[in-house]
Amino acid sequence: MRGGCGDAIDAPAASVACAMDLDPTATSTPATTRMLVPGPVPPTEWPALGAFIFRSNRTADGRVRCLHGDQGGDERSHVAELAELPAGEAAFWRAAGSRGETLGVIGCEIDRSQRRAWIRGPWAVPGLSSASLEAALLNTLERALPDINRLDAFPSEDDETLAALYRGAGYCRMDVHRVMQAALGDAGTATAADPRIRPARSDDLGQWLPLHHGLFPGSYLSDDEIAAAISDGPRLVLTARLDGRPAGYLVAKDDVTGDELYVDYLGVDPAARGCGLGRALLRHAMRWGEDRGRRRRQLQQGPAERHAVGVRNGQER
Question: 10 Å Cβ neighbour count for 207?
């Protein structure tokens, strides 16, 4: 998921988070969508979908249709990201024409421990039957995941076609998320390290995980994954301390494919806000990203994280 570059938040990309508690026996497919039967794509062939996904996920004026399917600014970044996806944590389906050409694609990332999946797409070749094909792709995904009972989708806020597809399929609008991205290497990273910020330790987690659960219910990283990330090279986990106790935290990833520092989670205890902890956490992470050669930083802001906009502009509120 990628937004525009620059320090100012100028029209950030936005998606509407939609969700459905899935009952596979209740899904239905209009007769008009049965003209093609999408088939599963083997993991070794996922990278070959990158060019189609990149092109199909852009409108004529360059806007992104599905933010969860956006993996960079060109075909190469999409191909590379698909090549790195673990086979057991994602799935894709493809509809092909009579000559084998790709007519439609849908995919998802899967967390079977949560019985939850995050949808990418669907996308179909533009035409009179594209809406029907996209509905067929969505139905195929739903029926292919009998062990999943929660599906989340992220159509762009201004893509009415994709939003209408999900409404018609019974998905409920949940939240609006904004993707914010800016270049690393600005003046904010030149400040001295803040002594309140340090790498997280295992014994920190018991103190700030309850805060994390409150800020990010149903987070895509489990507690065990966050604990493992403390010693995981591509990830950064920070603790912010105030008056001798943990009062904030940050979890980030070195995204080599996207050439960016991706902030998974940034949280500050409400009682400690206004003290600059969020800004200090983000600046520490920015230095880490620069040291690893990344050019951009990115985070998402949900409706419960309005203060993230202030942090993003260097003015924690």
Answer: 14
Tell me the residue range of the domain where 255 lies: 184-312
Structural domains counted in the chain: 2
The pairing of beta strand 260-268 with beta strand 296-301: parallel
DSSP 8-class letter at 184: S
Give burial (CB, 10 Å; 0-12/13-18/19+) of 26.
Answer: exposed
Q: Which of 128, 158, 176 is the last residue of a domain?
A: 176
Structural domain includes residue 7: no
- Segment 283-316, tens digit of pLDDT: 898 888 888 888 766 665 554 444 433 333 333 3
Looking at 145, 176, 207, the residue that finishes a domain is 176
Residues 111 and 234 grouped into a single domain: no
Tokens standing for residue 219:
């987070």
Q: What is the mean pLDDT of residues 249-273?
A: 85
In a domain, 5, yes or no: no
Q: Could you give the CA distance from residue 135 to residue 48 in angstroms, rounded to a whole number?
A: 22
For residues 160 and 196, membership in a common domain is answered with no
Which pTM value belongs to this model? Answer: 0.62
**Span 20-79, pLDDT tens digits:** 554 444 444 443 334 578 999 999 999 999 999 999 999 888 888 998 898 878 899 899
Q: Which two tokens stand for residue 3?
A: 């937004």
What is the secondary structure of 130-170 as a DSSP string?
A: HHHHHHHHHHHHHHH-TT--EEEE-BBTT-HHHHHHHHHTT
Same-domain check for residues 159 and 227 = no
b (16+ CB within 10 A) / e for 236-265: bbbbbbbeeebbbbbbbbbbebbbbbbbbb
Contact present, 236 and 252 (Cβ < 8 Å): yes
| Residue 96 to residue 145: CA distance in whole angstroms | 21
Sign of CA dihedral 190, 196, 201, 205: negative
Token duo for residue 26: 């209740």
For residues 105 and 156, the answer to whether their CB atoms sit within 8 Å is no
